[in-house]
Design a protein that fits this description.
Strand order of the largest sheet: 4-7-3-8-2-1-5-6
Helix content: 10-25%
Shape: globular
Distance between the termini: 27 Å
Number of helices: 5
Length: 362
């Protein structure tokens, strides 16, 4: 979810910037270009060479959404070098859960609208589901029902997909040997092409229930428990995974942070094409473009022949990958099973053309 935020410079003037809203993060993250414009301390940034994000000693600047101030007091500021954040995300900043921990928020995905209100202003609507909120970080969790069992899950709209502990996917495989699965991340489960994504267990969960409402045919990626142990430390308690935007986009979700309550209202169900896709895991690159991080197997053999991990993706049909958003490239790879997508990749300085079929996974 990307919104327009108003950042206040030291002289009181407004600097508008696109901001990625991430309920799975606790820090305010800004790109170097925005940080310089706001006069933030950048002494930790290198003058040259590759670098990941660094913490700034400056206090978080005032931020407004639709003219309403959000509470950034005491929030740590992290700076990414360059003019953007993660590759493939069209934003100069990331607004964390901690900025909303005193408010009543509505993530209305069907209406493409974010609402921020003070407690007691909005009349809640939808199915009530209690949540636990970490008062320091703002991260929250709910009790969801997965395959008939109640599981503590974070709610992370900053993640494209729903990720769970591999202990859950292992249990489901043992309990339901007829449930198909494969190794590697595709569609919404393919977030940033992190190395561990190519080793995850990809499954379709028939139902994920929040209170009285359900999301069906949900793509989930099973990953090592250590990832969720780390996530649990910043959340309100131990979680076995988090619900991502592939589920949330089908709902209008209210979070009353101070009163520990969420309200869910179903919108039109998302089209069931998430995992009807060409079988490659992508990694967006900081300089623009995408690298093939992995090739997914189907029925024991690679679903795409002629493509290797490490190849640079140049084009999908008529869409050039350089400068494209992650979601745009994913949509170009999706389609009806059996359709063909022409991929152009670069390997060793040479371009290769590969005819790849859209496949239903897993």
């Amino acid at each position: 979810m990307i919104v327009e935020a108003q950042f206040v410079r030291p002289d009181g003037t407004i600097r508008k910037a696109r901001a990625w809203v991430d309920t799975g993060s606790q820090h305010l993250v800004v790109a170097e270009s925005l940080a310089r414009d706001l006069g933030l301390d950048l002494s930790g940034l290198k003058k040259d060479g590759p670098q990941d994000s660094v913490d700034s000693s400056s206090p978080a600047p005032p931020v407004r959404l639709g003219g309403l101030p959000v509470d950034t007091k005491g929030i740590k500021v992290r700076v990414f070098p360059g003019t953007g954040l993660r590759a493939g995300v069209p934003a100069e900043a990331m607004l964390p859960a901690s900025a909303f921990r005193h408010d009543h928020i509505v993530f209305d995905y069907p209406a493409l609208r974010l609402t921020v209100a003070r407690p007691g202003i909005l009349k809640p609507r939808g199915n009530a589901v209690p949540c636990r909120v970490n008062p320091e970080t703002g991260l929250f969790l709910i009790a969801a029902v997965l395959d008939g069992e109640t599981v503590q899950m974070g709610v992370d709209n900053g993640s494209a997909g729903t990720w769970v502990s591999e202990s859950l996917t292992g249990t489901w495989q043992a309990r339901h040997p007829d449930w198909p699965h494969t190794t590697g991340a595709l569609g919404s489960a393919n977030f940033f092409g992190f190395p561990f994504e190519t080793q995850g267990t990809l499954m379709r969960l028939p139902e994920l229930r929040m209170g009285t409402l359900s999301a069906r045919d949900v793509a989930v990626l099973g990953l090592p428990q250590g990832l969720f142990d780390w996530y649990s430390k910043k959340s309100a308690g131990a979680v076995a995974g988090f619900i991502g935007a592939n589920v949330l986009k089908g709902f209008r979700l209210e979070i009353d942070f101070p009163n520990g309550m969420t309200y869910w209202e179903a919108g039109p169900p998302p089209k069931p094409i998430d995992l009807d896709i060409v079988g490659v895991t992508l990694r967006p690159e900081a300089g623009g473009g995408f690298t093939i991080a992995g090739v997914i197997a189907k029925d024991g053999k690679p679903a795409v022949m002629g493509v290797r991990p490490g190849d640079k993706l140049i084009r999908v049909a008529s869409l050039y990958a350089a400068g494209a958003l992650m979601g745009t490239v994913m949509d170009a790879l999706r389609g009806q099973p059996g359709e063909t997508r022409t991929l152009v990749v670069e390997r060793g300085g040479k371009q290769l053309t590969v005819e790849a079929k859209v496949t239903r996974f897993p």
